[in-house]
Amino acid sequence: MCPAPDESNGTNGTNGVANGANGNHEGYRAFQTNQASRPNSNNPYAPVGDFLSNVSKFQIIESTLREGEQFANAFFDTETKIKIAKALDAFGVDYIELTSPAASEQSRLDCEAICNLGLKSKILTHVRCNMNDAKLAVATGVDGVDVVIGTSSHLMEHSHGKDITYIKNTAIEVIEYVKSQGKEIRFSSEDSFRSDLVDLLTIYSAVDKVGVHRVGIADTVGCATPRQVYDLVRTLRGVVSCDIETHFHNDTGCAIANAYCALEAGATHIDTSVIGIGERNGITPLGGLMARMIVADRDYVKSKYNLEKLKELEDIVAEAVEINIPFNNYITGFCAFTHKAGIHAKAILNNPSTYEIINPTDFGMSRYVHFASRLTGWNAIKSRAEQLGLEMTDEQIKAVTLKIKAMADVRPLAIDDADSIIRTYHHNLSAKQEKPLLELSAEEKKKFVKAEQELNAESEKKDLERKADEQADVPAAKKQKTEAVA
């Protein structure tokens, strides 16, 4: 069941944090519903069984403090980095990846400070594939080192200028050093999907033989499709025995789908950032990945991650980089669990799984139903009247619904307007002298009368059609068939 709505401030869920950047759901109310969000049946969206799939066994490498620091608006001072790191740890991410200590002296000091926090999440740093960077990284006290070098012809020619033989030999040297220091080590190619496949597999095979803990695939420019991801990861899975990490940019909108396909094909680790911030359009968003994965395996995701911490975590990062949470953000956006259309509201009020695949209470959030618009259905108004403690018959509810719909054609309605109409209509049912539903100008009154007449005419037309259908001479065989289907 959805948690009881907070009538005083419209806050959201058990943590009392507003849903969305502005925390304001004018025209909406959080609603309790009649049944649990998930029907008692097998999950039709569970992944297809596959011995290579890690959809139900994956780890998150959270890169807000590395990739996220490359976001256009990002500037994280030490205090902010520590605050974000603690919030990520509270959420339960497996790894926290930090900016290279070689980037600046302050980056090195920040790396050391976070390593000394004693967090449960393992701390990684991301460096270039050379010995100087590797030694500097190890000295900070991190749990692991992520090394990377470009392998596409674009980057070999225009970035570092090294050939495949040099890359392979240097990678082996760095890997052996980091392992000798008792640290985890990952080797990743950069721009993997524009790299020569033979070159990639040659390098990955060589580093796997010297005991690298993970190899990484990076869609650095966001060009890959889910099918390409599946094929490459599946191929790599047949070449290496180590873990496979994947890093997907979102330039073409495929980051979440690519991450999911990578897990299906045998990848073990997914790179994310909070709200997806990063270079250009960013990478796989942590919340978006959680939305995808909880549908696939709710028990695994809920047992591993503190999902109710997501909203607080996103608010911290959004404030730090001075952006609003998008209205359509996964899980925490203003509209994520908001329902407006009449037929949607009716079904949601009976059983939320009709129009929700994710249970908002899993994330400490609430669902909202809009009942102050021309799309309002009478079931939403009935629920609101019950919340207000007003007893009315279904016919009376339908009548006041038409008045709300007509008024919404005259002017925008706030939630207080809709409540006022419901209360006043209820009062007028037994009052000797009727009160106006709302204070309207002369012009608004004319528009309201016209809109109400049109809606009443439409309602009468529907009633006539329904009665005509009921009275129609339907052949017995057809009627029996219809009753059997019903």
From TrEMBL:
It comes from the Eukaryota. Its EC number is 2.3.3.14. Residues 9-24 have a biased composition (Low complexity). It catalyses: acetyl-CoA + 2-oxoglutarate + H2O = (2R)-homocitrate + CoA + H(+). Residues 453-470 have a biased composition (Basic and acidic residues). One of its GO terms (biological process) is lysine biosynthetic process via aminoadipic acid. HAMAP family: Homocitr_synth_fung_arch (MF_02222). This is homocitrate synthase. It comes from Cladosporium halotolerans. The lineage of its organism: Eukaryota, Fungi, Dikarya, Ascomycota, Pezizomycotina. The gene is lys1.
